[in-house]
Amino acid sequence: MPTPAAGDDAIVPRATIDTPPNPPNSDTPPPPAAEVKPAKKSRKKPKNDDGSALDLIARAVEALNSEYQASGRSFRIEQVSGGYRMMTLPQFRSVIATLQGLGAGSKLSRAAIDTLAIIAYRQPITRAQLEAIRGVACGEVLKSLTDRRLVTIAGRSEELGRPLLYSTSKGFLDAFGLSSLKDLPTPGELGFRPLSQPSVGAAPAGE
After folding, report:
1. Is the C-alpha dihedral spanning 139, 118, 166, 78 positive or negative?
2. pTM score, two decimals?
3. Is the peptide bond before 124 cis (omega within 30 degrees of 0)?
């Protein structure tokens, strides 16, 4: 059957194509999705009031020690070397030493105690300054105190020869139950006259 020619009166249907905004096979990638970030929670710093953390710790330690004393415990919490430590009362030392198999322990000689006392109150101090105060050689005593970790080398002096400077160590505070050097008794409390401070570079008497 012949196809009718398109004339003025002919009706030609128009094809309509609905193009999607983003065809599946299109090379154009879809726009990225907006990233949603969780809201940050505001953290308020605690205000510092009169009841500081150190005061709270001190009050708690005091309360615990009161309870230990009331219940007859053999230990206390003591402030030692800048912190706190559980320590046995002196009257129970021999019992604890026996249970742990510890010996009596060697005591410091009088010369070592004298040397250690001078270092504690005059640190940092050189060996020459120490010997000028004591009037005797201190080499062996210094070595003994260093081996016991009661004395440590704090550096070198700026004087001629740059001799070593000696000072007490943390082990010294532990051994004598001191929180800091400020807990040392003053010479006046011990009944002694304060020593005059020697000048830097002072040599022992007789040189």
Report:
1. positive
2. 0.52
3. yes
